[in-house]
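Sanity check

After download, print the first record. It should look like this:
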Amino acid sequence: MGGVLPLIWSCPLIESFPLIKSRVRMKSTRPNSATPKSITAAVVGLMRYYAITLAEKNIRVNTVHPAGVATPMTLNPQFGQFFDEHPEDLAGLQNPLPVPLLEPVDISEALICLCGRTGRYITGVTLPVDAGYTLE
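Expected structure tokens:
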């Protein structure tokens, strides 16, 4: 990944570099349930490395962690079929705020905040846009 830094440094227009990683982690006893947590930790670690490394060039790096978003990834027959077959996993995806899925615009607006003028001094943060999903 070190090959990315010279490319980023060479572009004078880059001021913000957001990474997006789903915050959803199934609350399951399945053997692979640790995988999403490991991936999140890796993405956050990578973000922090780039935030420190790119700060001298005035480039901000953050991560956005959305919960379920109403996109074709979640709004399809296979997704519904999975939860019909594994209803115990559906309970692990409930949000404290009464919204089953976020809208794509909600994530876009968070990115606009981080990448725009209002986020000019925000770097190295993990921003959950998750209707309170991570409050537990």
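If your output differs, re-run the checksum step. Summary of this record's structure: DSSP finds five helices and three strands in the chain.
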